[in-house]
Amino acid sequence: MKTFTKISEMRAAVLEARKKGLSIGLVPTMGYLHEGHLSLVRESVKKTDCTVVSIFVNPSQFRPNEDIAEYPRDIDHDVRILGKEGVTFVFIPEVEEMYPPGYKTYVEVTELQDKLCGRSRPGHFKGVCTVVLKLFHVINADVAFFGQKDTQQAVILKKMIQDLDMTVRIEVLPIVREKNGLALSSRNTYLSPEQRKAALCLVRGLRKAGQMIEDGIRESARIIQQVKDVIRSEPLAEIDYVEIVDLESLDSIKRVDKECLIALAVFIGKVRLIDNVIFGYRE
Ligand code: AMP
Predict the structure, then answer these.
(1) I need a labelling partner for 202 at 20 to 30 A (CA). Which of 94, 127, 195, 242 fits?
(2) Beta pairing partners, 91
(3) What's the pTM value of the predicted model, to 2 decimals?
(4) Which tens digit of pLDDT belongs to each residue from 90-120?
């Protein structure tokens, strides 16, 4: 496994692999890797000849009030565990490498970027699209692997790929959870033991929604209300949003009678956690 920090070197290494006829898989991450990230890495290693994992805490996707300096980092640990997974290249650029002085170009997927998480994090998806597009250009992967944990991100990136006539394919993989149901997230490290317990209200809310749908209830408003009630019964939780939306347009839907996404964001103290479930999903 080789590690690169420079775009030119990363590009040259991938080009060399391409010349040998190898297929390339990309797993973009912000590091502090956990089993959720590793599920993407393992899928890429299984399905492609040459897996590239990028680790970059992307400043353009953080809002001024979100403290990027506090984002958890442990590059040594990340590189060590990637070394055991059959990864070919790790790309760890500095901020100045991705955004040199005078950088001016950003990519926006209009409308989709303003829904769900975009409402409370304006500019977030512009930053995500910009950095992922840059990574796509540098790595020139055949397939890129993303988690359902960030379904809105995957929906937006698929639209960007379609609109910009790109050929990279996106694969979205299921959410990896702790035994108790908590979705793995680098942000979970911010939680105290008490907050960690409180954070289970997210998955409890989603399970309630699943139960209602199984019981034949279809009205989104009724389901959302019940999910909110479950979350509100947890004193440490403050709801950012609970929505039921169409999986392509991300528009709210009134009735759960087709493939749809139930997505939520909840503050546990200062930590904003997201989770979701897709209903009626067929591969
Ligand atoms: P991040 O490092 O948080 O930017 O995440 C990098 C990738 O890992 C994204 O595609 C996420 O959706 C994915 N990911 C994060 N958490 C999980 C999880 N619990 N299960 C599966 N994928 C995840």
Answers:
(1) 127
(2) 4, 54
(3) 0.97
(4) 999 999 999 999 999 999 999 999 999 999 9
DSSP H or E run through 20: none
For ligand 1, say whether the CB of 152 is within 6 Å of any of its atoms. Answer: no
For residue 148, the CA-to-ligand 1 centroid distance in Å is: 8
Mean pLDDT of the chain: 97
Name the percent of the chain in helix, strand, coil, to the closest 5: 45, 20, 35
Of 135, 133, 143, 157, nearest in space to 51 by CA? 143
Q: Which of 27, 40, 82 to mutate to test the pocket of ligand 1 (most atoms within 8 A of CB)?
A: 40
209/236 Cα distance (integer angstroms): 21
Sheet containing 50-55: order of strands: 2-4, 89-91, 50-55, 24-29, 143-147, 169-173
- β-pairing, 169-173 vs 143-147, is parallel
Cα 12 to its chain centre, rounded Å, is 27
72 alpha carbon to ligand 1 midpoint, in Å?
14
pLDDT for 280: 80
H helix runs in 140-239, sequence order = 151-163, 193-198, 200-214, 220-232
pLDDT in tens, 151-178: 999 999 999 999 999 999 999 999 999 9
Q: How many residues does the chain have?
A: 283
